[in-house]
Amino acid sequence: MTTTVLGAGYAGVMAANRLAGRGEEVVLVTPNAWFVERIRLHRVATGLRENARLDLQTVLNPAVEVVQDTATEIGDDKIQLAAGENLPYDTLVYAVGSGTSDRNGACRIVSEEETERLRTALAEAPDAPVTIVGAGLTGVELAGALREAGRAVKLVSTAPDRRAIQAHLRFLARQGVEIELGRRVDPAGIDGLVVDTTGFTVPSLAADSGLPVDDLGRLLVDEQLTVPGHPNILGAGDAVHSSFRAACATALPMGAHVADVITARREGRAGKPFRMGYVLQCTDLGSGRGRVQFLHPDDTERAIAIDGRAGGLVKETICRMTVRWLSQERDRAGRYSWPAGA
């Protein structure tokens, strides 16, 4: 029996490692020969880091067969690849992540390609001010990195509803970022260099293949992360409709869980519902500073946070741990675990 995993992000690599370490035949389909630390793309965009790539083999179980290609259509038991070949599968893990979009013409940092586009635009206009639309974690981290790189930055957003975001904005204001809150704006209506961080899109692969999706094109799954009506297709990560926020902290447990469900079914057991709880939310605010917000399992904020250089140190430690968790799962299946939900 072969499991094919689409996508070599946090969810896809975790699922592939967990399954391969248990003796499952695993095929990983990815267009690139490297793993992208997407949580570092804001620093790549601003030139503070050369790239966010790791050799895929440093985080992937060597027993996993890598097919360097892109899926264009998913059938009941095979995948159509861009190169023209059909790839059969017994079980499929859909973990294609977030996609790119030309919406409103603004720059973004959702993917490597979009990050490079922004990096080029910044290099071509070194003195141009930058307007960031959105005060979520992506917008805040990008603003901090831009200020660290010496750019003039304006951040525009609706009023934040989380204490952590309010604290981020106060810090950025002290660093010289112009903050404008309380209004929605169309990035297309802003002059100059604009970065839209208000959301992301997902690849249309699931919709194009006739699989059930939500209004945003995200694959619909049940509580076991299985596609309704397609028991041999499971989903994990940003490209899946979920009540949990899209984040590395969500993708890793989802990837591990789909592997556990597949293993259980192979052994004649019922898969368990996906449950997880949050612990921390870490933010890079630039210049070695950050904020670590402690969370309740349901993702609401606790009244505890670590700020400043200590927060920056913890943030960097967590970033390194994400890669270590993948590597540890590569070396011993089942080693990765996550907090249970409330």
Structure description:
This protein has 342 residues and is of the alpha/beta class. The chain has two domains: 2-99 and 201-274, FAD/NAD(P)-binding domain, CATH 3.50.50; 103-199, 3-Layer(bba) Sandwich (FAD/NAD(P)-binding domain). It is built from eight helices and 18 strands. It has helices at 10-20, 41-45, 112-124, 137-148, 163-174, 205-208, 248-266, 308-331; strands at 2-6, 25-30, 34-36, 53-55, 65-68, 71-74, 78-81, 86-88, 91-94, 130-133, 153-157, 178-181, 193-196, 226-227, 230-235, 280-286, 289-295, 301-307. Strands 5-2-1-9-15-14 form a six-stranded mixed β-sheet. A four-stranded parallel β-sheet has the order 12-11-10-13, covered by helices on one side. A three-stranded antiparallel β-sheet has the order 6-7-8. Strand 14 (226-227) and strand 15 form a beta hairpin. Helix 1 (10-20) runs parallel beside helix 7 (248-266) and helix 1 runs parallel beside helix 8 (308-331). The protein is globular. 44% of the residues are buried. The mean pLDDT is 94.
Structural topology:
Blueprint: E1 2-6, H1 10-20, E2 25-30, E3 34-36, H2 41-45, E4 53-55, E5 65-68, E6 71-74, E7 78-81, E8 86-88, E9 91-94, H3 112-124, E10 130-133, H4 137-148, E11 153-157, H5 163-174, E12 178-181, E13 193-196, H6 205-208, E14 226-227, E15 230-235, H7 248-266, E16 280-286, E17 289-295, E18 301-307, H8 308-331
Parallel strand pairs: 1-2, 1-9, 2-5, 9-15, 10-11, 10-13, 11-12
Antiparallel strand pairs: 3-4, 6-7, 7-8, 14-15, 16-17, 17-18
Helix pairs in contact: 1-7, 1-8, 4-5
InterPro entries: FAD/NAD-bd_sf, FAD/NAD-binding_dom, NADH-Q_oxidoreductase
Keywords: FAD, Flavoprotein, Oxidoreductase
Family: Belongs to the NADH dehydrogenase family.
